[in-house]
Design a protein that fits this description.
2 copies of one chain form a homodimer. Chain A is an alpha/beta fold. Chain A has 2 domains: about 160 residues, 3-Layer(aba) Sandwich (Rossmann fold), CATH 3.40.50; about 110 residues, Rossmann fold (3-Layer(aba) Sandwich). Chain A is about 45% helix and about 15% strand. The first copy, chain A, is built from 13 helices and 10 strands. In chain A, strands 4-3-1-2-9-10 form a 6-stranded parallel sheet, sandwiched between helices. Chain A has a 4-stranded parallel sheet with strand order 6-5-7-8, with helices on both faces. The longest helix of chain A has 17 residues. Chain A is globular. The interface between A and B is medium-sized, with 26 and 26 residues.
Chain lengths: ~280, ~280
C-alpha cells in the first residue's frame, strides 16, 4: 500500500475528531454538553492529569502546557480545538489562537455572552480558580459587550478539590460555597457565571443554596453551543450517523475522579490512553 | 583564571549546601525544622510549583519528576539530598536511592521510627495525601520495626488546599479535620503521624481538636533530626560559623502560599529563583 492509498483511508476533514483539552478531568462537563448536542461527532479529549491543576500556575507555564496539548491534538488530526478549561481559555487561548489555522475555541467568550444576555439588574458574579479570576478574562469579555455592567469576582480554590473528593451533596461543601458566595450575594447579583469546568458538577447544589431568581451560567453548556455553531458555519460538522467515539488521553493515570465524573455526567468513554507529554 | 584556580574557590565538600525538594512550598516546614537545628548550613530548596501537587499522581510520574530535581540539586553541588515531601519519599526515594552516591533522605523513615517510639497502646493513625496513603509506605516502615502494631490510615486530600487557602484557624477546617479523623479516633489511636509536609502548619489546630493524650508525630521535625545525624556521621556538617543561606528555586512563580508559609514558619529566604525544569 503506498502513501496515497493510505491517505485515501483517512476520514474526510469534517469526519475528523473535535479535540478537547483540560488540565484534568473537569473538562468532561464540556464533553457531556457537546455529546448531548452533537451525538455523532468523534471526540478526542486530553486531560493533563500529570500537571493538574493549572488554576494556581503562571500564565507562561499555562501557555506552554496548552501549546503542547494543542500540538498533540493536531498531530492526531483534529478538525477543531476546544479549550475546555477556564484557566487555559483565559490565559493561553488569546495567545495561541494567533498561531494555529484550525478554529480554537475557549469557554470564556460563550460564558460571558450568556451572562450579558441573562442579567436584568446589571450585576454579574463570577467564580473560578485563582488564575482565571486574576486574569480578569470574564470581566473584560463582559465589559467589551456592555461596559455598563457591574462585575463581582471571587476565586474559589477549594471547590475543585471538594468536587474531586466527591463531596457534592455535603454540608461542609455548602458552608464553603456560602463563605465564597455570600459577599457577592449581598451585593444583589442576579447572574452567576460558573467559571470553571468542574463547577457544573456542583450546579444543582449551588442552585439550592442561593436565591432561585439568580441565573446560573454554565460555561460548559454555552461553549458546546458555540462549538456547534462554528462547525456548522465552517462546514466542519460530521456527516456520519453512527454514535461518535470518545477517546480519552490522560497524561497520568487518574482513576477516582474520572469514574466519578463519567458516572455523574452519564458519559460513555470508548477508549482510554495514558501518554507522557515530555 | 584557569579551571584549577576556579575549582579552588569552590566551597569544601562539607560546606556545600543541603539540597531539599518538595512538590511545592509545603516542604519549607522541613527547612524550618532543619534551620532550627543547623543554623549554619547552606540550604538550596526546589519547590516544583509548576507541577504541584504530587499527591494524586502516579508512581511513575512522581519518580520522573523527583529524578529531574535531584539531578538539578546535584548539578548545583549539593552534598546531600532531602526529599521534604511525603509523596516523593514514599514513591520515589526507594527507587532513586539506588542510583545516587550522595545520601538521599526522605521523611517516611524518621516519622515511622518516631511513631513506633511514641505509641503505648500500639494503635497508630497516619494521615497524608492519596498517593502517600495508597503507597502503604508508613505502614510498611512501621511494621518492619514492630509487626505487632495496628495502623489506621486516612487520605486527607482537602487539607493541603485548605492550608494553601490560609484557612488555618477556621471552623470549616475543623469540621473537615473531624470528618477525616473521627473514624480513626473512635478506634483509640494514641499516636497520629502527620504524613504530609504541609500538615505541621495545622499541627496546633489539630492538637486542640483531639484527645490531648494523642501524640502528634511531625515528619518535618523527625526528618531534620535524621539529617543532622547523617551529616555528623558522614563528616558532612559544615564548619562555617555564619548563618547559612536559604536559596529557593521554584519551577513556577508562587506568591501567596510562599509568603504565608515563610511568615508562619519565621523563615528568612535569602534569594529566590524561578526555573523551568523542561
Amino acid at each position: 500500500m503506498n502513501q496515497q492509498t493510505k491517505n485515501c483511508q483517512l476520514p474526510s476533514h469534517s469526519d475528523r475528531a473535535i479535540g478537547i483539552f483540560d488540565s484534568g478531568v473537569g473538562g468532561l462537563t464540556v464533553v457531556a454538553a457537546l455529546r448531548h448536542l452533537l451525538p455523532h461527532e468523534e471526540i478526542l479529549y486530553v486531560g493533563d492529569t500529570a500537571r493538574v491543576p493549572y488554576g494556581n500556575k503562571s500564565q507562561e507555564t499555562i501557555i506552554r502546557y496548552s501549546q503542547e496539548i494543542v500540538d498533540l491534538l493536531l498531530q492526531r488530526g483534529c478538525k477543531m480545538i476546544v479549550a475546555a478549561c477556564n484557566t487555559a481559555s483565559a490565559l493561553a487561548v488569546p495567545t495561541l489562537e494567533n498561531f494555529y489555522k484550525v478554529p480554537l475555541q475557549g469557554v470564556i467568550g460563550p460564558g460571558a455572552a450568556a451572562a450579558v444576555k441573562a442579567t436584568r439588574s446589571g450585576k454579574i458574579g463570577i467564580i473560578g480558580t485563582k488564575a482565571t479570576v486574576a486574569s480578569n478574562a470574564y470581566s473584560q469579555a463582559i465589559q467589551t459587550l456592555d461596559p455598563e455592567l457591574t462585575i463581582i469576582s471571587q476565586a474559589c480554590p477549594l471547590l475543585v478539590p471538594l468536587i474531586e473528593e466527591g463531596w457534592l451533596d455535603d454540608e461542609i461543601t455548602d458552608a464553603i460555597i456560602h463563605r465564597y458566595l455570600d459577599p457577592m450575594l449581598s451585593q444583589n447579583i442576579d447572574t452567576l457565571v460558573l467559571g470553571c469546568t468542574h463547577y457544573p458538577l456542583l450546579k444543582k447544589r449551588i442552585a439550592t443554596l442561593i436565591d432561585p431568581n439568580i441565573t446560573l451560567v454554565d460555561s460548559a453548556e454555552n461553549c458546546a453551543r458555540t462549538v456547534q455553531q462554528i462547525l456548522s458555519e465552517k462546514n466542519l460538522a460530521t456527516s456520519q450517523k453512527k454514535d461518535g467515539f470518545l477517546h480519552l488521553i490522560l497524561t497520568d493515570r487518574s482513576e477516582g475522579f474520572l469514574n466519578l465524573a463519567a458516572e455523574r455526567l452519564q458519559l460513555h468513554v470508548t477508549s482510554l490512553e495514558t501518554l507522557s507529554l515530555h
